[in-house]
Amino acid sequence: MLLDTPRDDRSLFAVALEDGRFLIALTGIALCLSGGFAILQSVSGHLLPQDSHAIGMDAAALVHASNPHLLGFMFHDRVAYGGTLLAVGLGYLWIAAFPMEKREAWAWWALLFSGGIGFAAFLTYLGQGYLDTWHGVATLFLLPVFLMGLLRGRPDRIRLSSSWARGDQECAFARWGRMLLGGCAVGLILAGTTIAIFGMTRVFVPSDLRFIGLEIGSLRQISPTLIPLISHDRSGFGGGLCSTGCLLIFMARCAELNRSFVEVVGLMGCAGFGGALGVHFVVGYTDFLHLLPAFLGLLLFIVAEVLLWAGWKQTCARTNGMRSEPDSIKTAF
Question: Where are the strands (E) in 77-228, listed by range?
Fold first, then answer.
């Protein structure tokens, strides 16, 4: 005789919306796909259809009207922006899979601030007036998903007191790793804010124009919409850096030191720094002073990741030793 088991009559929607994890994971997947698309589209050497329509020419015609450096400069901003989207998306996937499963309050606050900055960064197009329709449609569909995930994933207690002091009892490696990662995150926010402001106002720094080989007046003569288009990607990249930095601050201070945390921090760094720095060498934009802050940030990030890894290994060794101690006592007696 079969034992009676309760029927599970929950709907698919009820399960998907239950605790917000699926919706936050869906947001992370969408961000990863968007970042990957931005990078692959740039690698293809073609402009997006709406970009070509806005400036009145495709990539080949733009190179003919100016020079290859201009197109490379446009792609370098887009690849860097795609790298930040990948980094944030990976962070959201990790938060949905691990901290949100335990209903940790800090994860909700991290999503609230990081997502708020990221979605608000869409409005930076107002600085120069160019509206990317694909970006606008994607934001319009993704924002409700993210907000519903926040609403459904809100923990019963949202105070940060316990999580905020999590690293205080850890080894020196872990504490220094958290501090350096937090410092790197602050640097990302400062750099992102600066880039976003420049993107909405002046758009270019002197090294940009030296690399392009054209003055602002010449760029306007090529197409009146060209500078607003460049401004859109540049300010978006700045917003992406701010969102990534905000997320890393919460992770550095509040996340439990375990294997998945160390791994996702490394993946986020590979995506963000790999996109932002790697593309400069691909397009030939290797101005030393322009890249120096990014290399300093990368160095700080690498040291932080190594220290976090060492701290995790030391924690594992200590935990394994404590587990084996009772067995040793039993053997002795």
Answer: none
